[in-house]
Amino acid sequence: MNLTQKIIKAHLVSGNPIPGEEIAIRIDQTLTQDSTGTMAYLQFEATGTGKVKTERSVAYIDHNMLQASQLNADDHAYIQSVALAHGIYVSKPGNGICHQVHLERFGKPGKTLLGSDSHTPTGGGIGMLAIGAGGLDVALAMGGAPFYLVCPKVVNVELRGRLNKGVTAKDIILKVLETLTTAGGVGKVMEYTGDGVKYLTVPERATVTNMGAELGATTSVFPADEKAREFLKAQGREEDYTPMYADADATYDEHIVIDLAELKPLAACPHSPGNIKPVSELAGKKVDQICIGSCTNSSYLDLMKVAAVLKGKTVAPGVSLTVSPGSRQVLTMLAENGALADMIAAGARVLECACGPCIGNGQSPKQGAVSLRTFNRNFYNRSGTPSADVYLVSPETAAVSALTGVITSPEGIKLPDIKMPKKFLINDNLILKPEDFEGGEIVRGDNIKPFPKGKALGETLTGEALIKLGDDITTDHIMPSNAALLAYRSNIPYLSDYCLSNCDKDFPARAKELGGGFIVAGSNYGQGSSREHAALVPLYLGIKAVIAKSFARIHKDNLMNNGILPLVFVDAGDYDKIEQGDKLRIDDALNGVDNGTFALVNETKGITVPLRLECGARQKNMLICGGSLNSVARK
Q1: What is the distance between the alpha carbons of residues 388 and 287, in angstroms, rounded to a whole number?
Q2: Can you give the pTM of this predicted structure?
Q3: pLDDT per residue over 327-354, tens digit each?
Q4: CA 263: distance to chain centroid?
Q5: What angle do CA 344, 203, 309 make, to 5 degrees?
Q6: How crowded is the C-beta side of 36, counted as CA atoms within 13 Å?
Q7: What distance in Å separates the CA atoms of residue 279 and residue 20, rounded to the nearest whole number?
Q8: What is the largest CA-CA distance in the chain?
Q9: E-strand spans in 349-427?
Q10: Residue 26: Cβ within 10 Å count
Q11: Cα–Cα distance for residue pair 133/129, rounded to 1 Å
Q12: How many CA atoms lie within 13 A of 271 on its CB side?
């Protein structure tokens, strides 16, 4: 068996673990963050569950950190109070980014982790089966329900050889993205094997598994070997180590090989993590801003390398350089050993231990800027500046470019050889334990509004094609993420005025005027974040179905969880037969859900287009009920 199969088998609750069939697995740990967590805890309360049933659940406050009004602070107070009341640990603001902190303090090899954040697969760097999901799925898992998913194929990504100086783990995952594309991992787990694995530290592995989310993969996983044991020992958690390997004769559904010695520094160019070019081809392009950090590249090792490059030098005059440490552990260690002072002296602006610019929460570059970022996503307007060009690069490429003022390859430049510390600084005093806060009052600010619930499916669905979209529409398109809107993540009515505004500013008003309708889209609709708001807001606007060539996994699940039909063209060419404004009708919808086939009548053009619904019996029942919560209530 491969490692993925072993972990699934150990947690299997129901179903046959055959690729393409629905299975249910037991969840050991969960995580939420404050951008998705407020809604997740409102949904958790709606289930009527008392204490959480998982081995460990943690609520992180790391996203909505800009407190320009009382709104974010109110949400933080709600999350902290409701989490502690239900037996959930709380990582307070300033303690760090959820994925970095969870890797440091809570992750355990061989365990399952479900998180309301698409980059939860970071935990695969330590040998976990860590999966991103919508907040409702996480809420149900906290209540003891299994997590349902289509059993994935397993891809063996064999790493051979060793990286050369100046080439990094970031370049490994960018190479995988170049090979497979941003939709190449849908329905798959990327399992890393080969002799090259032993040369990668846990933080380097976590960079690879983190950005596996950009492949659309269910998750990514590395073996839990001696490197994992050393990491846990350095974190004072050696007792949490369990060796986890694939069998020597393990089989896989697919196999790709990456020769690490042949890799060169790479960059993801605007506006997709899959738009890959060698850094050498971009060399000399003027840079205006460089942001180092995010849950992808903010570890102690990453920032020690950056500090060593910057030491004794000065950032180029035309460059604004920011550094966001991934955790308070990282920040404190950098402060104690002098590396933080080296970065500050060079001209770096040090931000707090939070997601920050990665989610568009501050540091929007100037108009038409070129911004190098060590983040995981460079979707259009994610930075908050529509005209900016954002490139994703390694910390080494970012640091060297900060000094030259132009995109510069780190190859051939003397770079430091930073070793893993034998012991990390341990200070968990910003992690609140629920047993220390029994009987506290749950605090609810005025901004927390009820979330919309789906209605039972009717026989006939009618409405206009409210918008027609192209391929690779992201959740950033559907529900923008920026500093102005993040504060309203618990207020769906307010957010509804911004739905798909990156594509058509008139969409929200049109949807409200017409009482809802249909969304038509191309391939890979809903790629990117796990944010459930990209389904909740369309539900509030009366969207009955999304008709697309194909869907990203998490968003498709979120649509079904909220009672919105995710329908696929039987013939992709039929996409051209529907235009915005066409009047559409689906008859006999209940039978359509039951047998998985629909006839979409385009009344404007006088034609009928066949559609199909790709899901299992459980999700069909859920859609008929009007969503997951309604289905649970009926049970």
Answers
A1: 11
A2: 0.92
A3: 999 999 999 999 999 999 999 999 999 9
A4: 26
A5: 30
A6: 30
A7: 38
A8: 72
A9: 349-350, 370-373, 389-392
A10: 17
A11: 13
A12: 17
Classify the C-alpha dihedral 18-218-126-147 as positive or negative: negative
Query: What's the N-to-C CA distance of the chain in angstroms?
Result: 36
Rounded mean pLDDT, 316-323:
98
- Round to whole Å and give the CA distance between 532 and 454: 14
Other Cβ atoms less than 10 A from the Cβ of 46: the count is: 16
**Unique residue bearing structure tokens 């760097």:** 125
Beta bridge partners of 256: 157
d(CA 288, CA 270): 15
Under 8 Å between Cβ of 71 and 447:
yes
Sign of the torsion formed by the C-alpha atoms of 238, 239, 245 and 248: positive
The pLDDT tens digits for 405-429 are 999 999 988 888 899 999 999 999 9
Give tens-digit pLDDT for 133-148.
Answer: 999 999 999 999 999 9
The C-alpha atoms of residue 213 and residue 251 are separated, in whole angstroms, by 23
Q: What type of residue sits at position 333?
A: M
Report the length, in residues, of the chain.
Answer: 635
**Tokens of residue 473, six digits:** 């529409």
Closest by CA to 161, choosing from 133, 199, 127, is 199
Residue 597 parent element (H or E) = strand 597-602
What phi, psi does 278 have (nearest 5°)? -65, 140
Q: Starting at the edge strand that comes first in sequence, how are the strands of the sheet with 153-160 ordered?
A: 219-221, 188-193, 153-160, 254-259
Q: Tens digit of pLDDT for each residue in 359-373?
A: 888 999 999 999 999
Helix (H, G, I), strand (E, B) or coil at 369: coil
Give the pLDDT confidence score for residue 513 in this predicted structure.
Answer: 97
- Rounded to whole angstroms, the Cα distance separating 579 from 489 reads 31
Phi, psi of 44 (to 5 degrees): -60, -45
Residue 497, C-beta contacts closer than 8 angstroms, at least 6 positions apart:
508
Would you say 550 and 498 are in contact if contact means Cβ atoms under 8 Å apart?
no
Mean pLDDT score of the chain, rounded to an integer? 95
Q: Is the dihedral of CA 519, 524, 527, 530 positive or negative?
A: positive
Question: 191: closest CA among 156, 228, 153?
Answer: 156
Residue type, 243: P
CA dihedral (33, 90, 331, 418) in degrees, to 10, reads -80
Count of other CB atoms within 10 angstroms of residue 605: 14
Distance separating alpha carbons of residues 438 and 70, to the nearest angstrom: 26
Structural contact between residues 162 and 260, judged by C-beta atoms closer than 8 angstroms: yes
Q: Are 457 and 563 contacting, i.e. CB atoms less than 8 angstroms apart?
A: yes
Neighbours of 183 (CB within 10 A): 18
Using CB atoms within 10 A of its CB, is residue 10 exposed (0-12), middle (13-18) or buried (19+)? middle
List all residues 6 or more positions away from 509 whose beta carbon is below 8 Å from its beta carbon: none
Report the pLDDT value the prediction gives residue 420, as an integer from 0 to 100.
Answer: 93
Side chain identity at residue 316, one-letter code: A
What are the distances in angstroms from CA 244 to CA 109, 225, 454, 579? 7, 7, 42, 52
Tell me the average pLDDT across 362-385. 95
**Residue appearing with tokens 């992201």:** 474
| DSSP letters spanning 74-97 | HHHHHHHHHHHHTT-EEE-TTSB-
